[in-house]
Amino acid sequence: MIVRLLIPLALLGLVFWLIPGQSTDPQRELAVPDEELIAVELASVAIVPFTGAPVVLLREPESGSIVPIFIGPNEANAIIVAQRAISTPRPMTHDLAASLIHQLGGTLERVVVDELRDSTYLGALDIRRERGGNILIDSRPSDALALAVRTGAAIFVSPDVLAAGEGVPFEGLGDDEDVVTALGITVMQPSRELREALDLPDGPGVLVNAVRGPAAEAGIRPGALITRVNEVAIVSPLVFLEQVNETARGERAEIEFWFDGETQTVEVETTVPPPTPRRDRRDIL
């Protein structure tokens, strides 16, 4: 019974944080100054070879790094569900938390992973309230990232967190399971059924599940099949991520895609797209 009560009590604490004048606890303080934080994009969920431990992959375009952060299996699943835009019959825990923030007049503007202390990552939710300004709420990074995927909030990490992830090996969940987001484009391996339903051409390519920011403005749409990046054939979601990440710094990624019977090529900046509220994203699945 005690375990079953933990989640409702945690959410109750969030309610008190969001209602002005109800909390007597001091605000969470970040371990590094704001100006040192680095914008990243949540790219995918992967696993560490041999151990099978799940990690979330963060793309940092300035250095060309893909940074793994260890997370739990439940949070990994929550991120995958959100990336795939899978609807559930009833709200899951992270859906409930996102709904609470919104219904109580708050906006999750960003999540921050600011410190690695004693082998544990520390994170925070930066929430803007209609009254009372912004507040920082202490959070496990895995929960914060699961909320960011649902709300379109920006993601920032500290330089130490980036450095801690260097050299950590990772591999995909499998071509049929991998979902990757880069440049604001979320892609997945199209199944045979999806190829037939969307009348997609034969050959290599990954299916666009959702798109936002400059990529959407350039004309990429949900339902498009991305076939090449920088003239390299895209055979899987992780290859898409690799080719985006190998784009020379300061250059735009050249993306070839098929949509509605036509093949087009556009160029997209490799910077982290600006945050976009989830309800404004164009999803198909």
How many strands appear in the DSSP assignment? 15
* Name of the CATH homologous superfamily of the largest domain: Bifunctional nuclease domain
State the end-to-end CA separation: 36 Å
Counting helices, strands and paired strands, the structural category is alpha+beta
Shape: globular
Largest sheet: 8 strands, antiparallel
CATH class of the largest domain: Alpha Beta
Helical amount among residues, as a percent range? 25-40%
- CATH fold name of the largest domain: Bifunctional nuclease domain
- Total of DSSP H or I helical runs spanning 4+ residues: 8
Radius of gyration: 19 Å
Query: Which second-level CATH architecture of the largest domain applies?
Result: Roll
Number of domains: 2
Percent strand: 25-35%
Q: Any low-confidence stretches, pLDDT <50, length ≥5?
A: 1-10, 15-26, 279-285
Mean pLDDT: 85
Order of helices and strands: HEEEHHEEEHEHEEHEHEEHEEE
Q: Can you put this structure into words, describing what you see?
A:
This protein is α+β, with helices and mostly antiparallel strands. It has two domains: 2-20 and 27-165, Bifunctional nuclease domain (Roll); 179-283, Pdz3 Domain (Roll). The chain is 27% helix and 33% strand. It is built from eight helices and 15 strands. The protein has helices at residues 2-18, 73-83, 93-103, 141-151, 159-165, 192-198, 214-217, 237-245; strands spanning 38-47, 54-60, 65-70, 106-117, 120-129, 134-139, 154-157, 179-182, 185-188, 206-211, 225-229, 232-233, 252-259, 262-269, 282-283. Strands 8, 9, 10, 11, 12, 13, 14 and 15 form an eight-stranded antiparallel sheet that branches. A seven-stranded mixed sheet has the order 3-2-1-7-4-5-6. A hairpin with a 2-residue loop joins β11 (225-229) and β12 (232-233). α3 (93-103) crosses α4 (141-151). The protein is globular and about 55 Å long. The two termini are 36 Å apart.
